[in-house]
# Entry
Amino acid sequence: MTALWLLFLSFSAAGIALCLVRAAAGPTTPDRVVGVDGMATISIALMVLLASFFDRQVYLDVALVYAVLGFIGVLAVARYMERGV
Amino acid sequence: MRIFGEILIGIGTAFLFLGGLGIFRLPDVYNRLQAGTKCTTLGAFSTILGVGFVHPNWMLKAIVIAVFILLTNPISAHALARASYKSGVKLWDKSVVDRCKEFEECQEIGKEEEG
Amino acid sequence: MDAQGEHRTQRYLTAFVVSYGVWLALVGTLNWQELLMGGVLSAIVAAFGWRYFSQVGFSRLSVKKLLYLIVYIPVFFWAMIKANFDVAYRVIHPRMPIHPGVVLIKTDLKSDSGKLALANSITLTPGTLTMDVKGNSMLVHWINVKSTDTEEATRIISKRFERYLKVIFS
# Structure
């Protein structure tokens, strides 16, 4: 059973790694932001998976707060790219 | 219940991986946003619901997180796409059609109607 | 101004009920202390935020709209799952069969929340991504362009959702 869960966790981690490569390499600023946004979404799912893996309900709250903060952060960056601060 | 939850988590994590692969492989910002938004949204949604099925007493909180992701992810993709085309990022050179110019004219008309 | 005053109580109640529902889902117990605290906090949140919460409150709610909403949810999820397999196929395929482009579509929806729901649905379904909305036209990025004509693109992309959304947000 643990092996199955480790497979799930490694799938999500591979997704985060690919997004990280794009965020580091992306030729333009929006490319990097897309990479970071994808990382944020996958991290939320990963946190919920970890909550289930370690059986701690507190991690769900962390995931919720990270979802809110990631959303606001992406909106702020998009607004900044559109018309400056 | 547990088996069903684990199947959902399996589908979800596979889509999360595909979303990462799409962000890595596709050629320009807009195509990357397509893969990034669709695959990661359904992946995260299905993963979180699957965890809710594995632990039934977490279900309500899991649904709150999943619906929040489902509602906010397309909005952030939309904001990013608009910001990148306003800040002058070009489409991929093999793109078929580009009607942004016409849309700018539409905007002028829209403003006149509003005023 | 009068019309707004009429709906004021209902709009306040909408905000209160939604906040209280989210609170209950988050705490997950029915302890009386949690219930009391949630009531106080939802009243405060609704007092500050009812203006931005909804325009008409519950007044326009009807059985027909609820039915259309219930039918709309499976339609939307089915389209979303198809979209995911479509994108997954394009990503895995070694030569990446994509023909991206930007097209314009027209919508008949009037209300802002209706347009928001349509834009979100378009973004989450096969190969399309809403980029901008102005008036009744939308700029859509399409990963596999089938038609550059406005009417044709509208028919392919948004008709199946608009049928439901027109009723839900009328």
Remarks:
- The mean pLDDT of chain C is 77.
- Strands of chain C lie at 101-106, 128-134, 137-142.
- Residues 63-168 of chain C form one domain.
